[in-house]
Amino acid sequence: QVQLVESGGGLVQAGGSLSVSCASSGHTFSRYAMGWFRQAPGKEREFVAAVNWRAGTTNYADSVQGRFTITRDIVTNTVYLQMSSLNPEDTAVYYCFAQEYGLGNERFWGQGTQVTVSS
């Protein structure tokens, strides 16, 4: 049973920084990615950032490029998202995901953590 447990998030003023983390367990994936999506009220869930777990390569949505940084800890199987220069448009529930590479593989989700940026 794949488990993704998120922590962090909260309330921050515009221009501030915040981080979220996600610890994974219960899987034996060999080639996979972990990362983050987010969903704001009334909007669809959108991609934020991901990291190739083996290679460590990363990719970001254009909207967060240069402001957010995704990192991983191979020992603890934890992925981190450091967010800076936050603005109210970043307010959303942030969902961690894990997915093996390959067509049709299931994407597993964390429970979500709220990030609120006040103006």
Description:
The chain is mainly β and 119 residues long. It has no helices and eleven strands. The strands form two sheets. Strands 2, 4, 5, 6, 9, 10 and 11 form a seven-stranded mixed beta sheet that branches. The protein has a four-stranded antiparallel beta sheet with strand order 1-3-8-7, with no helix packed on it. Strand 9 and strand 10 form a beta hairpin. The mean pLDDT is 96.
Measured on Cα atoms, how large is the radius of gyration? 14 Å
Please give the number of β-strands.
11
How many helices does DSSP assign?
A: 0
Alpha-carbon distance between the termini?
40 Å
Series of secondary-structure elements, N-terminal to C-terminal: EEEEEEEEEEE
Helical fraction equals: under 10%
Sheet-strand content, in percent, reads: over 45%
Q: Sketch the major β-sheet.
A: 7 strands, mixed
Q: On the 0-100 scale, what is the average pLDDT?
A: 96
